[in-house]
Amino acid sequence: MVQASNPSNLLCVGQFAGAHGVRGLVRFHSYTGAPKDVLRYQPLRDEQGQEFRLAPGGQAPKGSKGDVLVVRVAGVEDRNAAQALNGRRLYVDRAVLPDLGDEDDFYHADLIGCQCVTEAGDRLGQVRAIHDFGAGDVLEVVNGPKGGLYLPFTKAVVPVISIAERRLTVRLPEEVMGEPGRGGDDEADADPGEAA
Description:
Layout: E1 10-20, E2 25-30, E3 44-45, E4 51-52, E5 54-58, E6 68-73, H1 79-83, E7 89-93, E8 115-118, E9 123-132, E10 137-144, E11 147-152, E12 160-162, E13 167-170, H2 174-177, H3 186-189
Parallel strand pairs: 8-13
Antiparallel strand pairs: 1-2, 1-7, 2-6, 3-4, 5-6, 8-9, 9-10, 10-11, 12-13
């Protein structure tokens, strides 16, 4: 086990999402812009500093979100070992990533865990993941007072991003806000559930 020397330099690039089959393959939610790019950053580490090496493991199950990969993890040979990784987040040292060059630029991974608030300061929850279902990036926001939300990641909906303060200011779209004064409809209030 290798401890990271400076945890603040680590970026979360994905999370294990359970076993795939019986031969040790694992489903993995990639948080990189192009999901397969996560395989270029080796080794990855969890929060305790344990190293993981990932390799392509096959096709994602039908109906999976676009950011789900099936991977082989070095040393993981059976379903039990694969399932034991479920929920574990993996990180990469920022130093191995390309330099962004502009202080206003950021990696999607920088958004994971950021708090989302309305322009009035009301808390909406925190960013769990950024998905691309084919029509542009979408923020998955969880642990808020109204359950889970999926929000388009556009300048119109997220006009202010403060990585330093770990906060996103959100202008809720009408379909999320629901009727005036109501704060959200039943569908918007529903928890999106665990990502597959």
